Amino acid sequence: MSQTVQQEQEVSYRLQAAHWQPPAPPAPLDEDAAVEAFTSGRGVLWIDLTACDRVAASTLLTGRLGFHPLAVEDALSPYERPALQRYDGVLFLASHELQQQHGEEVYREVGFFLGEHFLVTVHTEPIPLIDYWFARWTAQPERVGKTAAHLLHLLLDAIVDEYFPIADTLEEKADDLEEAIFSGDGEVQVADILRVKRRLLELRQHITPLRDILNALLRRDVDLIPDEVVPYLQDVYDHTLRIAELADINRDILAGVLDAHLSVTSNRLNEVMRILTVISTILMSAALIAGVYGMNFEFMPELRWKAGYPFAGALMVLVALVELYIFRRKGWI
């Protein structure tokens, strides 16, 4: 039966914890019981902490759980680049969980403190994904995660899997923009291309640190990661490689789309300027004729000629036709 205890502290933090000692099911714990289970070193303990007040959460993590202050600072800072560190037998790493809200990607950092018998997850905002898997683990611990390392793999795999739908969506947007540009759709703007390109860059900036962390876990001899968990971490690492490659490929596609869009825009501008130049040349020729016959000299042969006005108009038309013929012969229009 799934049981969970959540300690709500509106100003400080929200803590939920469960302790599993087979064959008994996981037991929900309050804060004091969770600290006692943490120091006992028995079974498997999962503590999930949502830090509303970073000072209070830092006091709990450093004072009562004994984690290194630098690792706690990184766990509570949303601006730190995810990295893999080890302090006094505790492995610390961080990753960015991804959700899409109102058509935009929202990245939230999750810190992991891994020990031989415990996993502590830390984040500054509620994360439904962690709540879901916490409830699943308390209900079926043997299937979900029988060790702390299995729980770590479970959460990293779930976090990485959230990137795939977003990557596929951005890939579709890149394909749509490419098709629109090469089909001559004039409604595509540079801002549309740059917006998708920026989202792909952000996706890559968040997945590549996690890729490096997983690579370090696989390359180093980490005694906290059992051999049976390594193949599963390798699978997650392969997923991060695929996501990073998708981001790179689509950024290259968008770079080509942007170049094509600028080229099409330049060609359209050149076409307009060519037409305007032809019109201006014809009008200048007509203006020259009108200027000659508009001079106020007393002795002009055609000044008192009855056919002078029709002759001047016909001359203008004739010059315009000759210029159009010449322009067409040269391929300018």
Write the layout of secondary structure elements.
Blueprint (H helix, E strand, L loop, with lengths): L5 E3 L4 E8 L6 E3 L1 H10 L3 E8 L2 H11 L4 H8 L7 E4 L2 E12 L2 E11 L3 E6 L4 H12 L1 H4 L3 H14 L1 H20 L7 H30 L10 H64 L14 H22 L4
Instruction: Give the overall shape, derived from the CA principal axes.
Output: rod-shaped
**What's the SSE pattern?**
EEEHEHHEEEEHHHHHHH
Separation, N- and C-terminal Cα atoms:
81 Å
Regarding quaternary structure, how should these chains be classified?
single chain
**Which ranges are low-confidence, i.e. pLDDT below 50, for 5 or more consecutive residues?**
1-10
Q: Kindly identify the CATH topology of the domain at 1-154.
A: Beta Polymerase, domain 2
Task: Evaluate the radius of gyration.
Answer: 35 Å
Overall mean pLDDT: 86
Helix content range:
55-70%
CATH class of the domain at 1-154: Alpha Beta
- Strand proportion, as a percent range, falls in 15-25%
The CATH architecture of the domain at 1-154 would be 2-Layer Sandwich
Which structural class do the helices and strands define?
A: alpha+beta
Largest sheet: 8 strands, mixed
| Number of helices, counting only DSSP H or I runs of 4 residues or more | 10
CATH superfamily of the domain at 1-154: CorA soluble domain-like
- Total beta strands: 8
